[in-house]
Amino acid sequence: MKPSTLFCTFDIRNLYTMLPQEEALNVLVEFLHMHGYRKVKGIPLDSIRKLASVVLKENVFVYDNKFYHQTTGGAMGSSFTLTLANIFMWQWQKGLVRRPDITGEFFGRYIDDIFMTWNRSEHELRKLLDQANTWHPNIKLDYKIGQSLPFLDVLLTNNHGILATSVYHKPNAEPYVVPFNSDHPRHVFVNIIQTLLTRAVRYSSTFDIFNYERRSIKLMLLYNG
User: Reverse transcriptase domain: from which residue to which, for each copy (predicted)?
Assistant: First the structure.
């Protein structure tokens, strides 16, 4: 990594409810074919596609005393919708990662959240991402560019060519945890402390960063009683 290396994070706007249904089903079959499947647990791929179509397309909901049939995307919270969205993004990202100007960059994706490095100008990166926003009418990116950016719950910083990582705190979610005087089972509080400290150990790239996070955890727990 160079001192001038930029980071970029972006996510897909409303991915689960904007999946193109027929196209996503075709990508599912292509994905299974590419990975050597002709049957899955004895079920032929054409049958899997038909079953997937039922799960994806037969969704109705009520709004203002009227029934609606969902024609784009899948049911929110459905494990199948999440899996299908992940596979659809596998297909979509090919247009990005196979570009010659991406060669040598780091690219990582967690479902619809993407992180990548960039060693050219910010203008070129913005141009690329704006182009990517035109590749598919249903797939739109919201992106951020900088040398210190959060990705999921990690804050990544380019510190003069050295990667520094720390815990990212969402401003709307912290410093609030379950108050100690609530009626939750005692093991809940033990798990909270254990999770906070484990996250601090895993994400802190230096001992100083870990110590800062440890003190922040202590203050947060005191604040919440």
Answer: 1-194
Quick check: 59 pLDDT over 70? yes
| 194 burial type by CB count under 10 A (0-12 exposed, 13-18 middle, 19+ buried) | exposed
- pLDDT attached to residue 174: 67
Domain 6-151 has CATH 3.30.70: yes
From 143, 138, 10, 167, select the one nearest 74 (Cα to Cα): 138
Say what the pLDDT of residue 182 is. 82
Cβ contact 224:184 at 8 Å: no
Percent of the chain predicted with pLDDT > 90: 77
Q: Is the pLDDT of residue 175 over 90?
A: no
Q: How many CB atoms lie within 10 A of CB 166?
A: 21
Residue range 99-117: mean pLDDT, rounded: 91
Find the radius of gyration of the CA atoms of the chain.
Answer: 22
Q: Domain boundaries in the chain?
A: 6-151, 169-223
Can you give the pTM of this predicted structure?
0.83
